[in-house]
Amino acid sequence: MKPTIALVGRPNVGKSTLFNRLTRSRDALVADQPGLTRDRHYGHGRVGSKPYLVIDTGGFEPVVDEGILFEMAKQTLQAVDEADAIVFLVDGRTGITPQDKIIANRLRRSNQPVYLVVNKAEGMRSAVATAEFHELALGEPLSISASHGDGVRELMEMVLEHF
Ligand code: GDP
Ligand code: MG
Fold first, then answer.
1. Which residue, judged by its Cα, is nearest atom 14 of ligand 1?
2. DSSP secondary-structure letter at 17?
3. Ligand 1 test: best mutation among 7, 8, 10, 12, most atoms within 8 Å of CB?
4. Separation of alpha carbons 162 and 140, rounded Å
5. Predicted model pTM
6. Which residues, 6+ apart, have CB-to-CB distance to 162 below 8 Å?
7. For the CA of 18, the nearest ligand
8. Cα–Cα distances in Å, from 15 out to 64, 88, 101, 154, 163?
9. Is 12 annotated as a binding residue?
10. How far apart are CA 145 and CA 162, in angstroms?
11. 97-114 burial string, b = 16+ CB within 10 Å, else e?
């Protein structure tokens, strides 16, 4: 059976850009405006002989509830439940945000494998791009550039290794 991989992360980290690259489609809406992709999008792709299904999510929409309380979007939670593996994207240019920490807290309790992926790392040394993200305690972060394609194949080979 094809493994399902969910792309998760706060708005604007590059989920839809990665989705497009993984599915070679323009299905997902990519925009400068954070949080524009509202629904889940499904697409098919393959690495070598290994096919996969990938889910693009609209991100974790912040809910302000007396003070600062964030909740994962229901759609995203559903995508996480459906997935066999989770790719958690963060932004190597902006660094860790409070939303990243909330998402990381939730994903640390996930039953599926979680891959912490530092995007927008083109032109950066991997060790520099990933350094601060060790704090999220989700294992060794990988660095990629969804828009340039750097590290994307290596990421997918790692994710698909056990399927
Ligand atoms: P999403 O909200 O997580 O789906 O993010 P998008 O895929 O819509 O991307 C948000 C913004 O980040 C867009 O302006 C993208 O062009 C930009 N972006 C995505 N991937 C990269 C990358 O690898 N490098 C850089 N520099 N920008 C990127
Ligand atoms: Mg999007």
1. 32
2. H
3. 12
4. 17
5. 0.88
6. 113
7. 1
8. 23, 9, 17, 17, 22
9. yes
10. 23
11. eebbebbbebbeebebbb
Strand-pairing partners, residue 47, are 50
Superfamily holding 4-160: P-loop containing nucleotide triphosphate hydrolases (3.40.50.300)
Distance from Cα 66 to the centre of ligand 1, integer Å: 31
Q: How far is CA 18 from CA 29, 74, 79, 108, in A?
A: 11, 21, 16, 22
Give the separation between CA 10 and CA 88, rounded to whole angstroms. 9
Q: Are 56 and 16 in contact (CB under 8 A)?
A: yes
Per-position pLDDT tens, the chain of length 163: 899 999 999 889 999 999 989 987 555 555 444 554 444 588 889 998 899 999 988 744 544 443 333 445 666 777 888 899 999 999 999 999 998 998 899 899 999 999 999 999 999 999 999 999 999 999 999 999 999 999 999 999 999 998 9
Q: Ligand 2 centre from 27 Cα, in Å?
A: 10
Nearest to 21 by CA among 52, 49, 64: 52
